[in-house]
Amino acid sequence: MKLGIWTTLFSLTVAQLAWGQTSGNSKLVNTEGTAPETSATSYTVIGATPKQEALVRAQIQVMQPDVYPLRVLFVPHWKYMETARIFRLHVPAGYTSAMFTHLPSRSVFIDSDRYVSDDSLGYWVAHELGHLAANSTRESDADKAAGGYRKRLKDAHKPDAH
Ligand SMILES: [Zn+2]
Predict the structure, then answer these.
(1) CA 17, CA 156: separation in Å to the nearest integer?
(2) Distance from the CA of 106 to the center of ligand 1, in angstroms?
(3) Are 10 and 4 in contact, with CB atoms under 8 Å apart?
(4) What's the domain range around 111?
């Protein structure tokens, strides 16, 4: 995607998120113009390569989370840090530092410059889905919910017995 288009898209998204944060979740959902409930396919993936998007969608489908995100955004590192600052989110160093979740808008932000491997993507996305399922910013709540999702991921990766 060309940088100009990307910047516009992202600015619109941030404006929408910032607005949603002050107006409450129900109003944000109305701006989506779709049914309030999301499903395995109705969330948006922004900024990912086609391969990353296919992978993250497949992993989320396997994990069958209790609460789906409304959008998953892959952003460059500088944008990731800036967004965290705008949302006044604490991004702990070395811990889930490659992604965070903005609960009011059900948005998962992934630092695309820190994209390590396909396996770690699923592992940490499980954690973020745990935040959504628990509707909690506490890491222990997220990890508790993530346990079941990680098990489903692991089971799906098991090689055939023969
Ligand atoms: Zn977390």
Answers:
(1) 34
(2) 13
(3) no
(4) 38-157
Assess if residue 51 is contained within a domain.
yes
Q: How far does residue 142's CA lie from ligand 1's centre (Å)?
A: 6
pTM attached to this predicted model? 0.72
Evaluate whether residue 2 is within a structural domain: no
- With respect to residue 43, please indicate whether it lies within any of the assigned structural domains: yes
> Which domain CATH number covers 94?
3.40.390
Per-residue pLDDT of the chain (162 residues; tens, 9 = 90+): 455 545 555 555 555 555 444 434 444 444 444 444 556 678 999 999 999 999 999 999 999 999 999 999 999 999 998 998 888 776 665 544 689 999 999 999 999 988 768 888 999 999 999 999 999 999 999 999 999 999 999 999 777 645
- Ligand 1 centre and the CA of 73: distance in Å? 16
Count how many Cα atoms sit within 13 Å of the Cα of residue 106 in the half-sphere of its side chain.
26
131 Cα: distance to centroid of ligand 1 (angstroms): 7
Give the chain's domain count: 1
